[in-house]
UniProtKB/TrEMBL annotation:
Pfam families (UniProt xref): Pyridoxal_deC
GO MF entry, a single one: pyridoxal phosphate binding
GO CC, one annotated term: presynaptic active zone
Family named by the database record: Belongs to the group II decarboxylase family.
N6-(pyridoxal phosphate)lysine PTM sites in chain numbering: K297
Cofactor list: pyridoxal 5'-phosphate
Name of the molecule in the record: Glutamate decarboxylase 3
Keywords of the record: Decarboxylase, Lyase, Pyridoxal phosphate
GO biological process, one term: gamma-aminobutyric acid biosynthetic process
Subunit details: Homodimer.
Gene3D superfamilies from the UniProt entry: 3.90.1150.170, Type I PLP-dependent aspartate aminotransferase-like (Major domain)
Amino acid sequence: EQLFHENTHLLPAENGEKVTRLFLRELLNILLAYINKSQNRSSKVLDFHYPHQLKEGREGFSLELPDQPENLEQLLVDCRDTLKYGVKTGHPRFFNQLSTGLDIIGLAGEWLTSTANTNMFTYEVAPVFILMEEVILKKMQTFIGWSEEEGDGIFSPGGTMSNLYSVLLARYHFFPHVKTEGMHALPRLALFTSAHSHYSIKKSAVTLGIGSENVFLLKNPVLSPQGLFPFYVNTTAGTTVYGAFDPISDIADICENHGLWLHVDGAWGGGLLLSERHRTKLRGIERASSVTWNPHKMMCVPLQCSAILVRKKGLLQKCNQLSAEYLFQMDKHYDTSYDTGDKTIQCGRHVDVFKLWLMWKAKVVHSTHPSTKPSAAYGNILQHIPEHSNVCFWYLPTTTVLRRLKGSVHVSKVAPKIKAKMMESGATMVGYQPLGDKVNFFRCVFSNPATQKADVDFLVDEIARLGSN
Ligand code: ABU
Protein backbone atom coordinates (compact mmCIF):
# COMPACT_ATOMS: atom_id res chain seq x y z
CA GLU A 1 0.00 0.00 0.00
CA GLN A 2 2.88 2.29 0.82
CA LEU A 3 4.16 1.79 -2.71
CA PHE A 4 0.80 2.97 -4.05
CA HIS A 5 1.53 6.38 -2.59
CA GLU A 6 4.02 6.98 -5.37
CA ASN A 7 3.93 6.10 -9.01
CA THR A 8 7.62 5.52 -9.53
CA HIS A 9 7.56 1.81 -8.75
CA LEU A 10 5.85 0.64 -11.92
CA LEU A 11 7.73 -1.16 -14.66
CA PRO A 12 10.22 -0.41 -16.11
CA ALA A 13 11.44 0.53 -12.61
CA GLU A 14 13.70 -2.07 -11.13
CA ASN A 15 11.65 -4.76 -9.34
CA GLY A 16 8.53 -3.04 -10.64
CA GLU A 17 6.62 -6.26 -11.41
CA LYS A 18 4.83 -6.45 -8.07
CA VAL A 19 3.46 -2.90 -8.05
CA THR A 20 2.61 -3.15 -11.74
CA ARG A 21 0.60 -6.31 -11.09
CA LEU A 22 -1.18 -4.77 -8.10
CA PHE A 23 -1.98 -1.61 -9.98
CA LEU A 24 -3.32 -3.38 -13.05
CA ARG A 25 -5.28 -5.82 -10.91
CA GLU A 26 -6.94 -2.91 -9.12
CA LEU A 27 -7.70 -1.35 -12.48
CA LEU A 28 -9.15 -4.63 -13.69
CA ASN A 29 -11.44 -4.70 -10.64
CA ILE A 30 -12.66 -1.22 -11.53
CA LEU A 31 -13.29 -2.24 -15.13
CA LEU A 32 -15.07 -5.44 -14.14
CA ALA A 33 -17.29 -3.57 -11.70
CA TYR A 34 -18.13 -1.11 -14.49
CA ILE A 35 -18.90 -3.90 -16.96
CA ASN A 36 -21.22 -5.59 -14.45
CA LYS A 37 -22.92 -2.32 -13.69
CA SER A 38 -23.37 -1.63 -17.40
CA GLN A 39 -25.36 -4.84 -17.70
CA ASN A 40 -27.46 -4.18 -14.62
CA ARG A 41 -30.83 -2.75 -15.56
CA SER A 42 -31.27 -1.09 -12.20
CA SER A 43 -28.18 1.04 -12.84
CA LYS A 44 -28.41 4.20 -14.89
CA VAL A 45 -27.16 4.53 -18.44
CA LEU A 46 -25.65 7.87 -17.53
CA ASP A 47 -25.16 10.27 -14.66
CA PHE A 48 -25.56 13.46 -16.63
CA HIS A 49 -23.73 16.69 -15.72
CA TYR A 50 -23.49 19.89 -17.68
CA PRO A 51 -19.97 20.75 -18.98
CA HIS A 52 -19.49 23.52 -16.39
CA GLN A 53 -20.38 21.11 -13.60
CA LEU A 54 -17.83 18.55 -14.74
CA LYS A 55 -15.24 21.28 -15.24
CA GLU A 56 -15.69 22.73 -11.78
CA GLY A 57 -15.12 19.26 -10.32
CA ARG A 58 -17.58 16.82 -8.83
CA GLU A 59 -16.94 15.04 -5.55
CA GLY A 60 -13.21 15.57 -5.89
CA PHE A 61 -13.02 14.55 -9.57
CA SER A 62 -10.81 17.15 -11.18
CA LEU A 63 -10.07 17.40 -14.89
CA GLU A 64 -7.26 19.87 -14.24
CA LEU A 65 -3.70 18.66 -14.63
CA PRO A 66 -1.76 18.76 -11.33
CA ASP A 67 1.54 20.54 -10.66
CA GLN A 68 2.94 17.47 -8.91
CA PRO A 69 2.73 13.82 -10.04
CA GLU A 70 -0.22 11.99 -8.54
CA ASN A 71 0.12 8.69 -6.74
CA LEU A 72 -1.30 5.41 -7.99
CA GLU A 73 -4.19 5.44 -5.57
CA GLN A 74 -5.36 8.80 -6.91
CA LEU A 75 -4.92 7.62 -10.50
CA LEU A 76 -7.20 4.66 -9.77
CA VAL A 77 -9.78 7.03 -8.27
CA ASP A 78 -9.50 9.11 -11.45
CA CYS A 79 -10.09 5.98 -13.55
CA ARG A 80 -13.19 5.10 -11.52
CA ASP A 81 -14.55 8.65 -11.79
CA THR A 82 -13.90 8.80 -15.52
CA LEU A 83 -16.18 5.80 -15.97
CA LYS A 84 -18.69 7.11 -13.41
CA TYR A 85 -19.39 10.32 -15.33
CA GLY A 86 -19.35 8.68 -18.75
CA VAL A 87 -22.12 6.96 -20.70
CA LYS A 88 -22.61 3.19 -20.43
CA THR A 89 -22.92 2.43 -24.13
CA GLY A 90 -23.09 -1.31 -23.39
CA HIS A 91 -26.19 -0.87 -21.19
CA PRO A 92 -29.21 -2.79 -22.55
CA ARG A 93 -31.20 0.46 -22.56
CA PHE A 94 -28.73 2.49 -24.61
CA PHE A 95 -30.36 3.05 -28.03
CA ASN A 96 -28.61 6.28 -28.95
CA GLN A 97 -25.96 5.27 -31.47
CA LEU A 98 -25.30 2.77 -34.23
CA SER A 99 -22.34 1.41 -32.31
CA THR A 100 -23.49 0.00 -29.00
CA GLY A 101 -22.94 -2.99 -26.75
CA LEU A 102 -19.82 -4.37 -25.22
CA ASP A 103 -18.49 -7.62 -26.64
CA ILE A 104 -16.22 -9.30 -24.10
CA ILE A 105 -14.08 -11.08 -26.69
CA GLY A 106 -13.71 -7.81 -28.56
CA LEU A 107 -12.79 -6.09 -25.32
CA ALA A 108 -10.12 -8.71 -24.67
CA GLY A 109 -8.85 -8.01 -28.19
CA GLU A 110 -8.68 -4.29 -27.49
CA TRP A 111 -6.81 -4.86 -24.24
CA LEU A 112 -4.30 -7.09 -25.99
CA THR A 113 -3.93 -4.53 -28.77
CA SER A 114 -3.08 -1.78 -26.30
CA THR A 115 -0.67 -4.06 -24.51
CA ALA A 116 1.13 -4.86 -27.76
CA ASN A 117 1.15 -1.11 -28.50
CA THR A 118 2.50 -1.35 -31.98
CA ASN A 119 2.00 0.45 -35.25
CA MET A 120 0.38 -0.96 -38.37
CA PHE A 121 2.68 0.70 -40.89
CA THR A 122 5.20 -2.10 -41.38
CA TYR A 123 5.46 -5.88 -41.11
CA GLU A 124 8.70 -5.15 -39.28
CA VAL A 125 6.89 -3.91 -36.17
CA ALA A 126 3.49 -5.60 -36.53
CA PRO A 127 4.08 -8.95 -38.27
CA VAL A 128 1.14 -10.85 -36.81
CA PHE A 129 -1.37 -8.02 -37.04
CA ILE A 130 -0.43 -7.26 -40.66
CA LEU A 131 -1.09 -10.88 -41.64
CA MET A 132 -4.33 -10.91 -39.65
CA GLU A 133 -5.44 -7.81 -41.54
CA GLU A 134 -4.79 -9.61 -44.81
CA VAL A 135 -6.83 -12.62 -43.66
CA ILE A 136 -9.78 -10.57 -42.41
CA LEU A 137 -9.88 -8.24 -45.43
CA LYS A 138 -9.87 -11.27 -47.73
CA LYS A 139 -12.74 -12.77 -45.77
CA MET A 140 -14.73 -9.54 -46.01
CA GLN A 141 -14.05 -9.40 -49.76
CA THR A 142 -15.37 -12.94 -50.10
CA PHE A 143 -18.62 -11.88 -48.40
CA ILE A 144 -18.85 -8.95 -50.83
CA GLY A 145 -18.53 -11.44 -53.66
CA TRP A 146 -15.28 -10.38 -55.29
CA SER A 147 -13.20 -13.03 -57.01
CA GLU A 148 -9.81 -14.32 -55.85
CA GLU A 149 -8.08 -12.02 -58.35
CA GLU A 150 -9.90 -8.95 -57.08
CA GLY A 151 -9.82 -7.11 -53.81
CA ASP A 152 -7.66 -4.94 -51.65
CA GLY A 153 -8.32 -2.87 -48.57
CA ILE A 154 -7.17 -1.33 -45.36
CA PHE A 155 -8.61 -0.58 -41.93
CA SER A 156 -9.12 3.12 -41.38
CA PRO A 157 -10.16 5.32 -38.47
CA GLY A 158 -13.92 5.22 -39.03
CA GLY A 159 -16.54 5.24 -41.77
CA THR A 160 -15.95 8.88 -42.71
CA MET A 161 -12.31 8.15 -43.42
CA SER A 162 -13.20 5.00 -45.35
CA ASN A 163 -15.63 7.02 -47.49
CA LEU A 164 -12.93 9.64 -47.98
CA TYR A 165 -10.63 6.90 -49.28
CA SER A 166 -13.30 5.87 -51.78
CA VAL A 167 -13.49 9.35 -53.34
CA LEU A 168 -9.72 9.72 -53.24
CA LEU A 169 -9.27 6.39 -55.05
CA ALA A 170 -11.95 7.08 -57.62
CA ARG A 171 -10.34 10.42 -58.46
CA TYR A 172 -6.92 8.79 -58.75
CA HIS A 173 -8.35 5.96 -60.88
CA PHE A 174 -9.62 8.43 -63.49
CA PHE A 175 -6.88 11.05 -63.10
CA PRO A 176 -3.64 9.49 -61.80
CA HIS A 177 -1.76 12.71 -62.55
CA VAL A 178 -3.71 14.42 -59.74
CA LYS A 179 -1.10 12.93 -57.43
CA THR A 180 1.66 15.06 -58.88
CA GLU A 181 -0.12 17.96 -60.56
CA GLY A 182 -2.99 18.60 -58.18
CA MET A 183 -6.56 19.67 -58.82
CA HIS A 184 -5.78 22.46 -61.30
CA ALA A 185 -4.87 19.79 -63.87
CA LEU A 186 -8.36 18.22 -63.66
CA PRO A 187 -11.75 19.14 -65.09
CA ARG A 188 -14.41 20.22 -62.62
CA LEU A 189 -15.46 16.93 -61.02
CA ALA A 190 -19.00 15.92 -60.03
CA LEU A 191 -20.01 13.19 -57.67
CA PHE A 192 -23.42 11.72 -56.90
CA THR A 193 -25.05 10.43 -53.79
CA SER A 194 -28.53 10.04 -52.34
CA ALA A 195 -30.28 12.61 -50.19
CA HIS A 196 -30.10 10.39 -47.11
CA SER A 197 -26.47 9.41 -47.48
CA HIS A 198 -23.97 10.15 -44.75
CA TYR A 199 -22.56 13.68 -44.66
CA SER A 200 -19.04 12.25 -45.03
CA ILE A 201 -19.56 12.01 -48.81
CA LYS A 202 -19.98 15.77 -48.98
CA LYS A 203 -17.17 16.20 -46.48
CA SER A 204 -14.89 14.13 -48.70
CA ALA A 205 -15.64 16.46 -51.60
CA VAL A 206 -14.78 19.41 -49.36
CA THR A 207 -11.59 17.83 -48.03
CA LEU A 208 -10.35 16.72 -51.45
CA GLY A 209 -10.86 20.11 -53.07
CA ILE A 210 -13.78 18.96 -55.24
CA GLY A 211 -16.19 21.29 -53.49
CA SER A 212 -19.54 20.66 -51.83
CA GLU A 213 -21.39 22.38 -54.70
CA ASN A 214 -20.22 19.60 -56.99
CA VAL A 215 -21.98 16.92 -54.97
CA PHE A 216 -25.32 16.10 -56.59
CA LEU A 217 -28.18 14.25 -54.98
CA LEU A 218 -29.29 11.24 -57.01
CA LYS A 219 -32.93 12.23 -56.79
CA ASN A 220 -32.03 15.10 -59.13
CA PRO A 221 -32.83 13.96 -62.69
CA VAL A 222 -29.60 15.49 -64.01
CA LEU A 223 -26.83 12.91 -64.38
CA SER A 224 -24.53 15.06 -66.51
CA PRO A 225 -24.41 18.56 -65.11
CA GLN A 226 -23.03 20.83 -67.82
CA GLY A 227 -19.31 21.41 -67.88
CA LEU A 228 -18.66 18.90 -65.13
CA PHE A 229 -16.95 15.52 -65.22
CA PRO A 230 -19.09 12.93 -63.38
CA PHE A 231 -16.85 10.24 -61.92
CA TYR A 232 -18.27 8.79 -58.70
CA VAL A 233 -21.58 7.51 -57.37
CA ASN A 234 -22.17 6.64 -53.73
CA THR A 235 -24.92 4.24 -52.71
CA THR A 236 -25.79 3.64 -49.10
CA ALA A 237 -26.46 0.24 -47.59
CA GLY A 238 -28.19 1.21 -44.36
CA THR A 239 -28.65 4.97 -44.07
CA THR A 240 -27.71 6.53 -40.76
CA VAL A 241 -31.17 7.72 -39.76
CA TYR A 242 -33.70 5.47 -41.49
CA GLY A 243 -31.53 2.41 -42.09
CA ALA A 244 -32.62 2.41 -45.75
CA PHE A 245 -30.88 0.57 -48.58
CA ASP A 246 -30.28 2.08 -52.01
CA PRO A 247 -30.94 -0.28 -54.97
CA ILE A 248 -27.26 -1.06 -55.58
CA SER A 249 -27.83 -3.33 -58.55
CA ASP A 250 -29.90 -0.76 -60.48
CA ILE A 251 -27.36 1.97 -59.76
CA ALA A 252 -24.54 -0.39 -60.78
CA ASP A 253 -26.20 -0.66 -64.22
CA ILE A 254 -26.07 3.14 -64.59
CA CYS A 255 -22.47 3.28 -63.38
CA GLU A 256 -21.40 0.58 -65.83
CA ASN A 257 -23.17 2.35 -68.71
CA HIS A 258 -21.53 5.67 -67.89
CA GLY A 259 -18.15 4.38 -66.72
CA LEU A 260 -18.55 5.71 -63.18
CA TRP A 261 -16.92 4.55 -59.96
CA LEU A 262 -19.53 2.88 -57.75
CA HIS A 263 -19.03 3.07 -54.01
CA VAL A 264 -21.21 1.30 -51.45
CA ASP A 265 -21.26 2.94 -48.04
CA GLY A 266 -22.10 -0.13 -45.98
CA ALA A 267 -20.74 1.34 -42.77
CA TRP A 268 -24.00 0.44 -41.05
CA GLY A 269 -25.54 -2.21 -43.30
CA GLY A 270 -22.38 -4.07 -44.35
CA GLY A 271 -22.85 -6.47 -41.46
CA LEU A 272 -25.95 -7.87 -43.19
CA LEU A 273 -23.64 -9.53 -45.72
CA LEU A 274 -23.09 -12.14 -43.04
CA SER A 275 -26.76 -13.05 -43.02
CA GLU A 276 -28.05 -15.36 -45.75
CA ARG A 277 -31.51 -13.95 -45.24
CA HIS A 278 -30.71 -10.24 -45.23
CA ARG A 279 -27.75 -10.00 -47.62
CA THR A 280 -30.18 -9.62 -50.54
CA LYS A 281 -30.62 -6.01 -49.40
CA LEU A 282 -27.08 -5.45 -50.71
CA ARG A 283 -27.73 -7.20 -54.02
CA GLY A 284 -25.22 -5.96 -56.58
CA ILE A 285 -22.54 -5.02 -54.03
CA GLU A 286 -20.08 -7.30 -55.86
CA ARG A 287 -20.24 -4.81 -58.75
CA ALA A 288 -18.98 -1.96 -56.55
CA SER A 289 -15.54 -0.44 -57.08
CA SER A 290 -15.24 0.16 -53.33
CA VAL A 291 -17.09 -0.63 -50.13
CA THR A 292 -17.06 0.88 -46.64
CA TRP A 293 -17.91 -1.62 -43.91
CA ASN A 294 -17.75 -0.80 -40.19
CA PRO A 295 -17.61 -3.91 -38.00
CA HIS A 296 -17.84 -1.54 -35.02
CA LYS A 297 -21.50 -1.00 -35.83
CA MET A 298 -23.78 -3.98 -36.52
CA MET A 299 -21.06 -6.51 -35.69
CA CYS A 300 -20.45 -4.97 -32.25
CA VAL A 301 -16.66 -4.89 -32.50
CA PRO A 302 -15.38 -2.32 -29.97
CA LEU A 303 -14.72 1.10 -31.48
CA GLN A 304 -13.14 1.56 -33.75
CA CYS A 305 -13.06 -0.87 -36.62
CA SER A 306 -13.82 0.29 -40.15
CA ALA A 307 -12.59 -1.10 -43.46
CA ILE A 308 -12.34 0.43 -46.91
CA LEU A 309 -12.42 -2.43 -49.39
CA VAL A 310 -11.32 -1.80 -52.94
CA ARG A 311 -12.03 -4.05 -55.91
CA LYS A 312 -8.99 -3.08 -57.98
CA LYS A 313 -5.80 -4.54 -56.56
CA GLY A 314 -2.84 -2.21 -56.13
CA LEU A 315 -4.78 1.04 -56.46
CA LEU A 316 -4.48 1.98 -52.78
CA GLN A 317 -0.74 1.61 -52.94
CA LYS A 318 -0.32 3.52 -56.19
CA CYS A 319 -2.59 6.33 -55.06
CA ASN A 320 -1.01 6.91 -51.66
CA GLN A 321 2.54 5.58 -51.85
CA LEU A 322 5.29 8.08 -51.08
CA SER A 323 7.97 5.56 -50.04
CA ALA A 324 9.36 7.33 -46.98
CA GLU A 325 12.77 5.76 -46.76
CA TYR A 326 12.99 5.62 -42.99
CA LEU A 327 10.02 3.22 -42.93
CA PHE A 328 9.54 1.58 -46.29
CA GLN A 329 13.05 0.56 -47.33
CA MET A 330 12.84 -1.58 -50.45
CA ASP A 331 15.95 -3.60 -49.56
CA LYS A 332 14.46 -5.24 -46.46
CA HIS A 333 15.00 -8.97 -46.04
CA TYR A 334 11.27 -9.85 -46.35
CA ASP A 335 8.48 -9.30 -48.90
CA THR A 336 7.95 -5.57 -48.53
CA SER A 337 4.43 -5.74 -49.96
CA TYR A 338 3.57 -6.55 -46.34
CA ASP A 339 4.61 -3.03 -45.34
CA THR A 340 1.04 -1.93 -45.95
CA GLY A 341 1.41 1.48 -44.31
CA ASP A 342 2.12 3.24 -47.61
CA LYS A 343 -1.36 2.27 -48.86
CA THR A 344 -2.80 4.73 -46.40
CA ILE A 345 -3.00 8.50 -46.01
CA GLN A 346 -1.80 8.11 -42.44
CA CYS A 347 1.64 7.33 -41.16
CA GLY A 348 1.05 5.80 -37.76
CA ARG A 349 -1.94 3.46 -37.76
CA HIS A 350 -3.75 1.85 -34.83
CA VAL A 351 -4.23 -1.91 -34.81
CA ASP A 352 -7.97 -2.24 -35.40
CA VAL A 353 -7.97 -5.76 -36.75
CA PHE A 354 -7.12 -7.97 -33.81
CA LYS A 355 -10.39 -7.60 -31.88
CA LEU A 356 -12.35 -8.40 -35.06
CA TRP A 357 -10.15 -11.39 -35.86
CA LEU A 358 -10.60 -12.72 -32.32
CA MET A 359 -14.38 -12.18 -32.40
CA TRP A 360 -14.66 -13.83 -35.80
CA LYS A 361 -12.83 -16.88 -34.43
CA ALA A 362 -15.06 -16.92 -31.36
CA LYS A 363 -18.34 -16.69 -33.20
CA VAL A 364 -17.63 -18.03 -36.70
CA VAL A 365 -20.21 -16.73 -39.11
CA HIS A 366 -23.38 -18.72 -39.45
CA SER A 367 -26.37 -17.56 -41.39
CA THR A 368 -28.95 -16.12 -39.06
CA HIS A 369 -32.67 -16.06 -39.58
CA PRO A 370 -34.04 -13.41 -37.22
CA SER A 371 -37.69 -12.50 -37.57
CA THR A 372 -38.23 -9.17 -39.25
CA LYS A 373 -41.87 -9.11 -38.24
CA PRO A 374 -42.73 -6.54 -35.55
CA SER A 375 -44.46 -7.99 -32.52
CA ALA A 376 -48.13 -7.21 -32.01
CA ALA A 377 -47.35 -4.82 -29.15
CA TYR A 378 -45.58 -2.47 -31.55
CA GLY A 379 -48.16 -2.72 -34.30
CA ASN A 380 -49.10 0.91 -33.84
CA ILE A 381 -45.53 2.09 -34.13
CA LEU A 382 -44.20 -0.20 -36.84
CA GLN A 383 -46.59 0.15 -39.73
CA HIS A 384 -44.00 -1.10 -42.21
CA ILE A 385 -41.54 -3.95 -42.00
CA PRO A 386 -38.24 -2.14 -41.47
CA GLU A 387 -35.32 -2.73 -43.84
CA HIS A 388 -32.86 -2.49 -40.99
CA SER A 389 -32.88 -2.12 -37.22
CA ASN A 390 -33.52 1.63 -37.09
CA VAL A 391 -36.96 2.51 -35.79
CA CYS A 392 -37.97 6.14 -36.26
CA PHE A 393 -41.10 7.54 -34.64
CA TRP A 394 -42.79 10.59 -33.21
CA TYR A 395 -44.20 10.59 -29.74
CA LEU A 396 -47.36 12.69 -29.64
CA PRO A 397 -48.35 13.70 -26.15
CA THR A 398 -51.89 14.64 -25.24
CA THR A 399 -53.09 17.95 -26.62
CA THR A 400 -52.96 19.44 -23.11
CA VAL A 401 -49.23 18.81 -22.95
CA LEU A 402 -48.75 19.92 -26.55
CA ARG A 403 -50.51 23.19 -25.82
CA ARG A 404 -48.04 23.89 -23.06
CA LEU A 405 -45.18 23.75 -25.59
CA LYS A 406 -45.30 27.30 -26.89
CA GLY A 407 -44.37 28.03 -30.50
CA SER A 408 -45.68 27.47 -33.98
CA VAL A 409 -44.47 23.91 -34.66
CA HIS A 410 -45.27 22.08 -31.46
CA VAL A 411 -44.38 18.54 -32.47
CA SER A 412 -40.81 19.55 -33.28
CA LYS A 413 -40.29 20.49 -29.64
CA VAL A 414 -41.45 17.22 -28.14
CA ALA A 415 -38.42 15.00 -28.83
CA PRO A 416 -35.78 17.53 -27.64
CA LYS A 417 -37.75 18.19 -24.44
CA ILE A 418 -38.16 14.51 -23.69
CA LYS A 419 -34.53 13.81 -24.55
CA ALA A 420 -33.34 16.53 -22.15
CA LYS A 421 -35.43 15.06 -19.35
CA MET A 422 -34.30 11.57 -20.30
CA MET A 423 -30.63 12.50 -20.02
CA GLU A 424 -31.15 14.12 -16.65
CA SER A 425 -33.01 11.08 -15.39
CA GLY A 426 -30.39 8.78 -16.98
CA ALA A 427 -32.40 5.54 -17.16
CA THR A 428 -32.26 5.16 -20.93
CA MET A 429 -30.96 7.01 -23.98
CA VAL A 430 -32.31 7.41 -27.50
CA GLY A 431 -31.47 9.87 -30.28
CA TYR A 432 -33.62 12.34 -32.20
CA GLN A 433 -33.27 14.52 -35.28
CA PRO A 434 -35.27 16.33 -37.94
CA LEU A 435 -34.87 15.09 -41.51
CA GLY A 436 -35.97 16.93 -44.64
CA ASP A 437 -39.54 18.08 -44.11
CA LYS A 438 -39.96 15.84 -41.05
CA VAL A 439 -39.70 17.64 -37.73
CA ASN A 440 -37.78 16.13 -34.81
CA PHE A 441 -38.47 12.43 -34.36
CA PHE A 442 -36.87 9.74 -32.27
CA ARG A 443 -34.45 7.27 -33.86
CA CYS A 444 -34.12 4.08 -31.89
CA VAL A 445 -31.28 1.84 -33.02
CA PHE A 446 -31.06 -1.85 -32.26
CA SER A 447 -27.52 -3.17 -32.42
CA ASN A 448 -26.91 -4.06 -28.81
CA PRO A 449 -27.12 -7.81 -28.15
CA ALA A 450 -27.88 -7.08 -24.48
CA THR A 451 -31.19 -5.42 -25.35
CA GLN A 452 -34.34 -7.44 -24.78
CA LYS A 453 -37.99 -6.77 -25.51
CA ALA A 454 -38.54 -5.58 -21.93
CA ASP A 455 -35.94 -2.86 -22.53
CA VAL A 456 -37.86 -1.61 -25.54
CA ASP A 457 -41.03 -1.59 -23.43
CA PHE A 458 -39.09 0.38 -20.85
CA LEU A 459 -37.99 2.95 -23.44
CA VAL A 460 -41.53 3.42 -24.75
CA ASP A 461 -42.94 3.73 -21.21
CA GLU A 462 -40.17 6.15 -20.25
CA ILE A 463 -40.87 8.38 -23.25
CA ALA A 464 -44.56 8.38 -22.35
CA ARG A 465 -43.80 9.10 -18.69
CA LEU A 466 -41.42 11.96 -19.45
CA GLY A 467 -43.74 13.28 -22.13
CA SER A 468 -46.75 13.43 -19.89
CA ASN A 469 -45.42 15.88 -17.33
N1 ABU B 1 -22.07 7.57 -38.92
C1 ABU B 1 -21.57 7.60 -37.64
C2 ABU B 1 -22.51 6.99 -36.59
C3 ABU B 1 -23.74 7.73 -36.36
C4 ABU B 1 -24.53 7.24 -35.18
O1 ABU B 1 -24.07 6.41 -34.41
O2 ABU B 1 -25.64 7.68 -35.01
